[in-house]
Each structure stands twice: as structure tokens, then as C-alpha cells.
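Q: Is it fine to ask for two folds in a single conversation?
A: Yes, each is treated on its own. Send the first.
Q: Here.
A: Result:
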Amino acid sequence: MLLVALTAATGAVDAVSWLGLGKVFSAFMTGNIAFLAFRMGGAAGPSVPKVLASLLAFGLGALVAARIVRPTSDSGLVWPHRVTVALGAVVAVELVFLAVWIAVGGHPSQGAGERLIVLFAFAMGMQTGAVFSLGVRAVFTTATTATWAVLMADVVSWSSSRSDRRRLAAVIAGLFAGAVAGTVLVIHVRTWAPALPPAITVLVVAVAAVALRAPAGSRA
């Protein structure tokens, strides 16, 4: 459920990015790469500097997260402490985003928009790197393409357990729900829309710090 919550936070992040920052994704890098290709092919599309800023910042965030969550003595835990540390850093970056967003009244200029894209994409790169280190099959929290493919493939083989199928389906639903919530906030309370992702991630960090400090082998 914590991974589902993080995926919902991602949906809200991309809703704010797409609707408020010039139709650029902060988490869904497949879309950004496609946008960049469209522009290079001569089609209209999002700002190239913003797309590049998002791609580079996401990659840097994933790199930093990989350094934070590298294997240590607690790597056998269900949720290693370093994953919590990385997600805490995600919250910090998202709060900086929120502060800047509020300062400009939810309507950033071109330059401020590029800086905000960098902040959100960096945070999503870190989240992706942290979650990837947990090794949960087909769950990345910042994209659901693989999750959807694995879930549909299981319809044929029916090889996954019921809990696995529930998790995959819930992750997809979580992204959808988070994007809907983010969209509603941008439309109706735009100034505070970016508060949802850090609020969700704070809850995830708090629950993980208390409830998931048991070795992997001790799970029920």
C-alpha cells in the first residue's frame, strides 16, 4: 500500500507538471523522450529546454538515489533505512517546489517554470531509484507501463499470486487516482495543488519508518 501511495503521489506530480508547467512530465520520462523526438521531427510540442531539463534532472535524481540506497548491512530488511532517507530527501525537494510555486501564485514565468520542472523531476528520479532498490516486481511508482504489461500477461499464465495481482492493479489505480486528484487541485485550488505529493510521501516515510523495519524473512 505504501508503493500504491507513492504512485498516487506521482500522478499528482505529473498533473501539476502537465497542467501548470507547459505540458511537460516530471515523472513519465517515456513521454518526454517522445515529445523531444516530435520536436526534432518538426512538430509542435512542449518547450525543448523544459523537456531536456526534466530528463536531465530525473536522471540526476536517480543517480543520487542509487548512491543513497546502495547495499549496506540492512539490505535484508523489507524496507531498508536508506530508502526512507532517500524518500525524505524527495519530500524536502517537493517542499522547495511548493514554496516556489506559492511564491509565484501558481503561475510561474518561463524561467521559474524550468526551475520547478527541475525540482519535481529530480524528486521523481530519486523516488524511482529508491523504489527500484526494493526489487518489487513490475512496480516503479513513476510509470505503469511495465505494471500493466505484467498484469495483462498474468491473465494468460495466471502465474502470480492473488496478492501480486492485487498489488499491480492497485498501483495502476493509484496512478489514476493521484492524477485525478492533482487535476482537481490544479483547477480548483491551484496554489496548493503541489502540497499533495509531499503530504502523501511524508505519510509513506512515517509508516515505513515504524512498520517496515523487520527482516524480509520475517514477513507474514
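Q: Second one now.
A: Result:
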Amino acid sequence: MKPIQMVDLKGQYQNIKEQVDKSILNVIENTAFINGPEVKSFQKELEEYLGVKHVIPCANGTDALQIAMMALGLELGDEVITADFTFAATVEVIALLKLTPVLIDVEKDTFNIDIEALKKAITPNTKAIIPVHLFGQCSNMEAILAIAKEYNLYVIEDAAQAIGADYTFVDGSTKKAGTMGDIGTTSFFPSKNLGCYGDGGAIFTNDDDLAVLLRGIINHGMYKRYYHDVVGVNSRLDSIQAAVLRIKLPHLDTYCNARLKVAEYYNTAFVSTDKLTTPITSSFTTHVFHQYTLVLNGVDRGALQQYLSDKNIASAIYYPVPLHNQKAYIDDRYNEDDFTITNELCKTVISLPIHTEFEENQLKYITEAVLSFVNS
């Protein structure tokens, strides 16, 4: 069995190679490398796919979060609530802008922001909530939006791992991940469900005025060249990345369905053991499985990883250290008793390979290896 990686970008590329190569060459030949036609076309196509009024492409997902908070006019010391169990980019930009991050625990079954913890964390200084749609499914947005409305808070969705996921409201209406809050953000990092061949990101909003401001911020605060109306940054999606994304966007739903089938295979294989807790999908959202994350019950995680590695099977830990215990974000305000779920997850989660190019014999090999170890 050849080595099995967490993602198979080369295999995915081979299936769209001719289209991708042609699109990249077209950009090079036309030399419209920044804000060229490919960027504008991708913007419109993603707006149509998401059903959102405005997509603002930018350089990466971290910039997307930072620019979103800049556009909302948050001020020094304003509190922004987000999940403790996620990648550091979410809290990183809060700190960079000299805002006050407020980290809270997550739900045990979905790994997404805990609604009761959210309610308890709100103070007079709270100005925004950043729900992270972790591993591929949406947070409880109906509850989050209701809380935001009650306390007059902004909602910035971090949809970097969940683009393509659908959220269903109680009234039966549906919206795509990233399109429900005041602003949504995503990343096009190569391993994402919709990934480019470098760095890339985007910001979403249905607010016309916010969209105008966001478009200025990403381009040095300029609406007219050399006239700087707002404080901005340099964060533009380059045309080559947009060209790649234009080819991949029509395949996004197929990619997400392929990941779902892998997850279903894993779930079926692991139902026979109580040593593994398989991912739970909330009733109000679809799951696009950016990651397939198990919770280990009484299993030596390090030994399992080594066992899989010896069999040329990759695995990963998302995430080994809670954000509130990271050196950069340690704060005396935090109480360990408020992070019981996150602390436990960081000790017990393990993610298996999941991507769009699996063959059944590879999945059989992975599941048999995992079961052989946990049942030994």
C-alpha cells in the first residue's frame, strides 16, 4: 500500500489538470496578475454559489478575519467572543487589533461553540461573536444570531473549514455557511475543500455599505488610485489563484459529497467498537468533512499515531493545545473549570485522512489498521 496522506492534492489535480493548466497559462499570457478578469469572474461565481450579495476576495483566511473586524470599527479593548478549540488564526487577529479575545468552551459532540458558555461570557464590553464552523459543519447559528440581536452584537462567521455546508433554520429556509452573520470569512488554503494552489481567502456580506468599506480596506484603503480614504492593508487574491478556484468551484459539491462518503465508510467501520466516538452531525446543518475527527476512549493516542505511521497512514491532531493555554494567549481571566470539554478534546481527538480521491481498498486498509490497534 502506497503512503496515505491526509489529503491527496496531486490526485485531485490530475483530474482537472488540463483545465487548470490552461487557465493558469491564460493568466500568464494576459499578464493581468492582480485584480484581473479571473478575480472578478470568480467573485461573481462564488456570490452566485453562496447566494450572497457580496464576495470580496483577499489574500488569505486570516486577513479575511482581520479585515472583517477592521470594517466593523471595533475599538481598543472591545471584547470578541470565540471558541477555545480551533486554529489560532481566529484569536490571533483579535489580539493583533488590540481587541480583547474572550475564549469559551465548545460542545462535546459537535466541537462547535457552546451556546450556554456564550451567554455567560457576554459583558457590557462585548461587541462581536466569531463562531467557528469547525471541521465542516455549521455552529448553532439560529441561537447565535438570536443572542447577537438581543445584545446588539456583530457576528463574524469563520467558515474556513465549512464552505459548501448548508444551514437549515427552524422555518425551513437554508443558507450557506458564511452567509448568515454580518460578515463571513473563508480560506482557500490548498487543503481546504475549495483550495487554491497557494494562499487565498474571501469575505462575504449582504450589507452594501460594509461591502464598500471592505473593498477599500483590502486595497490600501483606496477606491481611486493614490487616494486613500480609509486605513487599509494589502490583501488581494492574485489572478492565478482565482483562475484555479474558478476551475474547482463547479466541483465543490462533488468534492464535499466525496468526503461525506469517506466519513460514512469510516462511521460504518467504527460502529463496532466503543473505543472510538465518531463525528456527530447536528440536525440543522450538513457536514462537508474538512476533517474527520474521532474521539478516543481509553486509547493511547501517541501509540496509535505511531502504529498508523508505521503502516504509512497519516494522522493529525487538531488541536493539541487549547488556545487559552497557548503561550501567546494565556490570560489570568481564564479559569480551567470553564474549559472542561476543550481540555479533554485536546487530549483525545485524532483526525484520519479524508479527501476526494480515495479508493475503497485504501479506506479498508485504514479502518482495519485502526480497529486492529484499538481492539488489541
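Q: Anything structural to flag on that second result?
A: Two points. The longest helix spans residues 9-30. Residues 269 and 367 are 6 Å apart (CA to CA).
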